[in-house]
Amino acid sequence: MSWVDACAFDEIEVEDLIRWDHEGRTFVIYRSPEDEVYCTSGLCTHEEVHLEDGLVMEHEIECPKHNAAFDYRTGEALRAPACVNLKTYPARVVGGRVEIDL
């Protein structure tokens, strides 16, 4: 495992997300209603639109362009036009910091 420090846990509001760019790749880190953290690829699998401006509700992220939706906990594509799941990455909080396993 290769855990990488991404941000402070407090930087992410409950039921929200932040964009995180690392080594030329873009990710999105979410804070669930249960105060857990999750990480997915930052681009929608439909047309590679960035998800940072998407709507987060409960455990879903909705793409801002065509309203595709994903379960950010599993990456599962929930609504067309997306039919390919998002890639997910293990995330954890250690000492108030969010770490992502890349």
Automatic annotation (TrEMBL):
InterPro entries hit by this protein: MocE_2FeS, Rieske_2Fe-2S
Every Rieske domain range: 4-100
Protein name as annotated: Rieske 2Fe-2S domain-containing protein
Organism: Maritimibacter dapengensis
